[in-house]
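Chain A, query sequence.
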Amino acid sequence: MKACIITILSFVLFCSCAQTQTKSVKIPAATSQKPAPNEAVATFAEGCFWHSEIVFQSLVGVRDAVSGYAGGQTKNPSYEQVSGGQTGHTETVQVYYDPAKISYATLVAAFFASMDPTSLNRQGNDVGTEYRSAAFYRTEEEKRILEAEIARINASKKYKSKVVTEVVPFKAFYPAEDYHQEYILHHPENSYVQHISIPDFIEFKHSFKGNFKP
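Chain A, predicted structure.
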């Protein structure tokens, strides 16, 4: 009985802390400015795309991170189809950035720092191939940067297991439904947002030595 009470109190305290964090953290959103003439695009998958959006949009030099689907064979898939695990797609973000302000290598470092790259077909409680981690390269230089970062992480022994992130050539990206875009910004009251997305984002900001937007 005592253990049960302690568990309940711990859960209540966790929820209260999560709600406090949600109210205090500034959610980074896409800017409305037009794309720069030299704007570049990068594509990453690291579990729930709600989380990925705010990770990349928090960095100076990133204009927007659009939620969507990539890596599969179904054209113009719906969220329901992707969630069913039959399309081959994984939840992905398409990142639009200014190479003069942030490098592809920095985006890659942020990508690996904001997830567990050794977790196969899942991130946290999100399980399935649609939550697998993948980096979609457009050039051989991007591929080299990705493989070098994976080698560095494996050599660092930060994790007990090897990195399982897929490094594959970019083929197509399909934007997700409108209600998924900027989801955390528009739905701060959502339980998943309060208890998972925001705490994960705060942890990322504390651990990653990046140039964050004010």
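Residues 1-20 have pLDDT under 50 and may be disordered. The CA atoms of residues 95 and 112 lie 15 Å apart.
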